[in-house]
Amino acid sequence: MNMKPKVGWTHRSLLFLLMLYLLLPLVATGLYALATNWQTTILPESWTLNWFKDMFQDLRFLEALWTSFYLCLISVALSLVIMLPAVFVITVYLPKLESFMKGLVVLPYAVPGVVAAVGLIRTYSSGPIDIAGTAYILIGAYFVVVLPYMYQGIRNSLLTVSAVELLNAAEMLGAKRARAFVTIILPNIWPGVIISTLLSFSVLFGEFVVTNMLVGGHIHTIQVYLYQRVSESGHLASAIAISYFIFIMILSTILMRLGRKMNGGTQG
Amino acid sequence: MNKSYLELQGIRKKFGDSTVLNDVYLSIREGELVTLLGPSGCGKSTLLRCIAGLTELDGGRIVLGQQDLTNLAPRNREVGMVFQSYALFPNLTVSENIEYGLKMRGAGKKERANRSEELLALIDLEDKRDVYPQNLSGGQQQRVALARALAVQPKVLLLDEPLSALDAKIRKNLRTEIREIQKRLQMTTVFVTHDQEEALTVSDRICIMNKGNIVQDGTPEQLYSTPRTEFVARFMGSYNVLTRAEANRLFGDGIGTAESFALRPESVGLLGEGMNVGGDVPSADKRIVEGTVDSVNILGNVIRYFVDASGVRLTIDRLNDGRSPTAQANGKVRLALDPSQLLRLEKEGA
Fold first, then answer.
1. pLDDT (tens digit, 9 = 90+) per residue, B9-31?
2. A184/B91 touch (CB, cutoff 8 Å), yes or no
3. Edge-to-edge strand ranges of the sheet holding B4-15
């Protein structure tokens, strides 16, 4: 009655090699961020927290972190406000538009970031909407970047809870559409929507190519800042990378917790 | 009681190029349970959704009592519906689900609680009032869906294949329960199903639908004993449907002018070695035909024989009462055919 499957040494060593391959760069980066000097020895000669101290004392780092944070927040919030009702209406009332939407939302994947950025700069650097190099164009571009995540996430939530049936049932019981949406649909899709929102947020937080090309010279997000500091000091850049990694890990943990909570909710 | 209460007048509906409902007329009396029975795609669920207001009509009128429902929104129709998938609200408890309709109509807290208790008693789930639907069994969920639809005291109750997602045993119990509740409340009900046995047990009246038309309607006895067309005969059970030539071979001439005939599987007597199964056979007015048993299926209380007689394959049902020996596959048997049991069928669409 041994419930644990037996794991042979081949499996173990394969897993170990894989983890080593995946984690070694991270460990090295972590060590480098904590080292004073690491040139001719296997392990650093001595340790220090100065790089982290420098980083947190560097106003530009905190500014970049803040810039990233609020730009991503605004973009995701905007996306939520627009996409939630839009996807709801399409899924429930205009299912004919679904195939069109499916095509539309893969475009951000299909068009490489560089191409998209060049196109956007050319379109918006003159003419009636002259917003190249401003936060507005970045928010617009971010909206497009997270479009697939938001669309799929919201749509899947709606389908999982059979929104159409629930809505019909609520209407038959005398609820107006808006009231049915607020009292029945929204509470049921909320966990799924939160997850897509957080996912979109972390995708934007790590976005570099489009950001750097569109507004790199004017607005320093955390990624742009990191890119600029790499050439100055490897130790500092490592410290930034590690901090960024920890931030994303916390975000991912919240995401997974929420996901489990949602599954737990529907399974009982 | 004989006055019609819910009146469907020439309902038409198309989805794209395909006609789903083709000029359907139906009138239902108050307190009556009418079943729409038919194969999938016959338009029965669409007709139900039209009554509910969830599907728009292309033509025709729906009248309930004195009120024309045709252009009313679902929420103003005073029609309750139970969905195939139950469609219970997962974010609300059992009692909150039941009270939802009353809340939407602005009923007070006390009234809602009273009504909800009443219905919980009706469906016998008082101990589950604070449970969420996903923690209930399928049968319990369906009962809650029924209570939720009844809570607002609709004038008509619509049931869209309410039992098809349940397993056989629960299905049988629940359909009796639904029928009892319906009778007790005198609730005018339209019940959609593709299961003829279900239709026969619960209905006051059955409407058989095919390709967007009601092809025959009547009481369960009428439909089972006198199917009008081949489609109804095939759908209502394991009727033997015979062509004119086949019927001639079994019954001789003088069977009338119809092109196809139906013969109930339990009306054929079976005589074999040491067997005299089938009641009062042989008698003068019965025809005796030789046959060979192809196969024997035990269906529980019924034994179903497939017999080849003069090149016609017949289904014959015998009660499995343990008193008479069972004919064996490949055994020779004699069939006692009663000409008065041969039904003449009308042409499709006639």
1. 999 999 988 999 999 999 999 99
2. yes
3. B18-29, B4-15, B59-64, B67-68
